[in-house]
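$ ./design --mode recover --in tokens.txt
reading tokens...
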């Protein structure tokens, strides 16, 4: 049984990570047909990618959208978590479901719904702002889940003791609650940014004409022979960069021994 489990684990990891290794190798493959294994390695595609204006502009658009959506998600997700975890009221469970639901819906359904809402109901022209709002709808879920989980582990004893000693609510939050929540907020923010940065389906329906995020740029240039090597480089960079927020978020989410402090 142990051998069977290790074999299944190895096969599962191979299915997940072997294609990623191929992308990394193709980013330094001198052969434009991407013969495998590479006959010769080169860094030429990396230098071309660094000066590709389309990729750089798309990267900046993705960063802008990700940072703005994460900021909105941190504020609204944290407020929602406090409201649902610290207070009891009629309809509490349905409200919690409504907050979590956007991340469970198919992306194409969310994209079409938001597109119709922006253009038909609100009369907004599609652009970066509409994409940021769209990303925030599912980024809130990530922050909400992280903060709720931390609030459940924290309890309310320390805050009640602080209030009994005569401190105000704001002082209690600043000196007691926030230090214990800090790592959960950072973990939620990192995951929210990564989720926004990689999103393509909802973005396609909510981003303005002529604008591209990095995932959309990759998709549009993936099947162009002269751009394929650069696409592999951009994908390799994303693979390497994506491990950082996920790793940090995992470490921070599991940091309970120090009360959530960094």
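writing sequence...
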């Amino acid at each position: 049984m142990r051998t069977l489990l290790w074999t299944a684990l190895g096969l599962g990891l191979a299915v997940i990570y072997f294609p990623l290794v191929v992308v990394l190798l193709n980013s330094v493959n001198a052969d434009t047909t991407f013969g495998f294994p590479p006959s010769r390695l080169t860094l030429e595609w990396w230098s071309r990618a660094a000066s590709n204006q389309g990729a750089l502009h798309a990267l900046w658009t993705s960063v802008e959208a990700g940072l703005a959506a994460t900021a909105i998600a941190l504020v609204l997700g944290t407020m929602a978590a406090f409201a649902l975890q610290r207070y009891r009221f009629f309809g509490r469970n349905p409200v919690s479901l409504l907050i979590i639901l956007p991340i469970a819906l198919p992306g194409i359904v969310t994209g079409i719904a938001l597109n119709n809402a922006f253009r038909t109901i609100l009369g907004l022209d599609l652009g970066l702002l509409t994409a940021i709002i769209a990303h925030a709808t599912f980024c809130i879920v990530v922050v909400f889940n992280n903060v709720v989980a931390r609030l459940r582990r924290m309890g309310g004893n320390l805050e009640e003791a602080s209030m009994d000693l005569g401190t105000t609510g704001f002082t209690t939050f600043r000196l007691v609650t926030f230090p214990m929540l800090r790592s959960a907020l950072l973990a939620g923010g990192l995951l929210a940014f990564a989720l926004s940065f990689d999103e393509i389906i909802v973005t396609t329906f909510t981003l303005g004409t002529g604008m591209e995020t990095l995932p959309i740029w990759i998709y549009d240039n993936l099947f162009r022979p002269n751009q394929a090597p650069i696409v592999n480089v951009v994908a390799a960079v994303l693979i390497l960069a994506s491990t950082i927020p996920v790793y940090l978020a995992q470490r921070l989410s599991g940091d309970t021994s120090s009360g959530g402090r960094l």
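exit 0
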